[in-house]
Amino acid sequence: MFQRLLTPLRARFEVAPTPKPVPRSSLASEISEPELSPENFQRDARIELMRNWVDSVKSTDDIMEKIQLLAEIQRIMVEDAATKDVFRECDGFVVLVNLLSTLRPPMSDDAQGSTETGEAARLAFAILAEGMRGHQANIDFFDHRVGYDSLEQSVLQLATNSRTVDQVFGFLVALSLQDFSPAGLFVSLRAAGGLHEAEAQIGQFASRFGPIYAPKAILVAVHLLPQEDELLQYALFKVLERLAVSSHRNQAALNALGLVGILFPRLYPEEGETALPEQLRAIMAKLLRRMLDMGASTREARAIFKRAVGEDGTLRMPVVELLRSGMRAKWPEYFSLEGSAALALKETAPKGMPCPAGFSFICWLSV
Questions:
Q1: Over the stretch 219-278, which tens digit does the pLDDT of each residue have?
Q2: Number of domains composing the chain
Q3: Pfam families given for it (predicted)?
Q4: Furthest-apart CA atoms within the chain: distance in Å
Q5: Is residue 319 part of a domain?
Q6: What is the pLDDT of residues 115-133, one digit of tens each?
Q7: Which structural domain range is residue 271 located in?
Q8: How far apart are CA 285 and CA 299, in angstroms?
Q9: In sequence order, what DSSP letters do the residues of 230-281 get, joined into one string?
Q10: Would you say residue 43 lies in a domain?
Q11: Is residue 291 part of a domain?
Q12: With a threshold of 0.90, does the pTM exceed it?
């Protein structure tokens, strides 16, 4: 049982490095393209504008001026992808994270301040998403040099304020999808009222859920989730469950975040701890089973087996049933390569392939 729970799947998502362009000789450049062509002039102008605007965001303290600058940065980034490199080189990602950390939650009677704060945060998240869209160098830079931990700390104040919390969670989900059409989802759910209405609205938004490009943004949302807000908890876990259902790749990406280790202790607490509300417990249990369909780490499986036995030595049947459902996982170990990619196997042993039983090649063709 233990082995089957552990080994259904190990998903890895590796993006093949983009081949470096072959440099052209100076003579070929002079012949094929004038030095001062209109295209080059426009590109250089956009690059210079990007530098100036990022520097201006650093220096200004006026919130309205920052909003105007952020809107221009987003516009020019959409128009010309070459400005994404300049944005990174000018520490644009660091500037955005710092900006989010300086946004103060509005006062309860400050409607204008609430609007300004929400718009500045929206633009910052939209630029983060656009800056990493289809740009592996920026994805790696943000992941390794800036970090999602820094992003989590920067939005902590906004995520704990009742006037901005729904917006922030919508922005985090939108960042993970690199699609801001569902950014207002949680605000709409709050206005709708109860959990039943929330489930219906999430079903309407489900058609907009695409691939998860930045799964760590979802992990930030899970870490920031307020434990006393049942509606927001239910809505977020329902969204994650729908994302897991929408594609196998999304399901594997969510499993790789370690959600099993987050969901299980809350669903099956120690004896004497407070139990979750019924509807919240149901959606979390559903999401947990979808995660276990993909497998569990050694640490997660050990925690599940440990919790299966009560303090009096009797079996806890709900946990045993969870283990049985994990045994039915159907996915084998595999590598998933995104986009233009290759897998190189370097083996010096005389036996050849490192997989003694061979391997299967599976592909999906979209016509």
A1: 999 999 999 999 999 999 999 999 999 988 899 899 999 999 999 999 988 776 777 889
A2: 1
A3: Arm_4
A4: 85
A5: yes
A6: 899 999 999 999 999 999 9
A7: 258-332
A8: 19
A9: HHHHHHHHHHHHHHHHH-HHHHHHHHTTTHHHHHHHHHSPPTTSPPPPHHHH
A10: no
A11: yes
A12: no
